[in-house]
Amino acid sequence: MNLRLFFKYTLGRGLILGPLLVFLLQIQAGADVWEALQNRYAPESLSKATEKQTPKHDPWARLRAIYLPFSEAIETAALTDQRAARKVSGHLHRALRPYAHIINDASRRFRIPPEIIGAVIMAESGGNSRARASTSTAKGLMQTIAGTFRNAREDLLSQGIHIEDDPFNPQASIIAGAWYLDRMYRQAAMDRKRPDLNRQDIASWRYPVEYYYAGPGHGRKKKKRVIIYAGGKQVVIDKPSYSRKVLKWAEIMGKTG
Predict the structure, then answer these.
(1) Per residue in 14-29, pLDDT tens?
(2) Which end is more exposed in the chain, N or C (fewer Cβ atoms within 10 Å of the end residue's Cβ)?
(3) Looking at the chain, which residues constitute the CATH 1.10.530.10 domain(s)?
C-alpha cells in the first residue's frame, strides 16, 4: 500500500494516525522521524504549559518537605540576618558534610567556589547520592545525565583522572558535575562575551548555573522559561528561579563558612 496516499486519505477524514504509521512514513521519506514529529505536533504555548506544570507556590516545596527544614521566608531573611543565616547554612552544611572533602577537591581542581558546587548538589538532589530523575537519565548528587557523565569520564581519563563508572558514587558524581559546571562557565562567558568574569565571585555563576540546569542550547536563549519534553512529559524549565535558588544558598553558606 502507498503510505503517502493512505496518510492523505486518513487526514482528510479527521482520523488520528498511529505513531507506528508516522514512523514508517518518515522512514520512507528519508526524514528525521523525531524532528518530523516535533514539527507536526506543535507544543502548547508557554503560558498554557506553565499554568499546568509550574506550581504557584514555592517550586522547591517537595525538596523542602524532604530535606530542608526551613521556610522560604527564613531562607530570604538569611541573606541579611545572621541568626537566620546560621540556621539555614547549618542545615545545608550538615547535609553536605559527608561530601565536603570531595567538594573541596573539585573546587580546587576546576576553580569553582565550593559553595556553588554544594548549592547545586542541594538543588539537584538534596544531598541524596541515590537520587534518580523520573523524566531523564539524570542520577546521583549532581544529577548528570548519562551522556554528560560519560563525556566527563572520558575527558577526565585523558587527563589522567579516573572516576568510577557509577553516577551514584559521590566522588564520581561531584567530579563529573564540577567538570560540567566548568564547561558551562566557559561556554556562558564565550556566548555572552564576558571573559572578564571572576570565577570566585558567586554572582558570576548565574548564567553557568542556568546552562548547567537547562543545557547550553536552552541556557543561551533569552527566554526565561523554556519547555522541554522528557520521559514523555512536558516540563517547564524556569532558569532564573533555579539560578536564584542556587546563588542564594551559595551566598548563605559563604556567609557562615
Answers:
(1) 444 454 444 444 445 4
(2) N
(3) 60-222+238-256
CB burial of 106-145 (b: ≥16 within 10 Å; e: otherwise) equals bbeebebbbbbbbbbbbbbbbbbbebeeeeebbbbbbbbb
Q: For residue 164, how far is the Cα from the chain centroid?
A: 22
Alpha-carbon distances of 172 from 16, 175, 228, rounded to whole Å? 46, 5, 27
Cα 150 from Cα 133, distance rounded (Å): 17
Res. 157 pLDDT band, cuts 50 70 90:
very high
Q: Are 132 and 173 in contact (CB under 8 A)?
A: no
Start-to-end C-alpha separation, the chain: 71
Q: Which residues 6+ apart lie within 8 Å of 18 measured at CB?
A: none
Residue 1, all three cell numbers = 500500500
Find out whether 159 and 128 touch, Cβ atoms under 8 Å: no
Indicate the class that CATH gives domain 60-222+238-256. Answer: mainly alpha
pLDDT tens digits along 65-120: 555 667 778 888 888 888 888 888 888 999 999 999 999 999 999 999 999 999 99
Of the candidates 124, 130, 127, the one whose C-alpha atom is nearest the C-alpha of residue 102 is 127
| Tens digit of each residue's pLDDT (9 = 90 or more) over 18-59 | 544 444 444 454 444 334 333 433 333 333 333 334 444 455
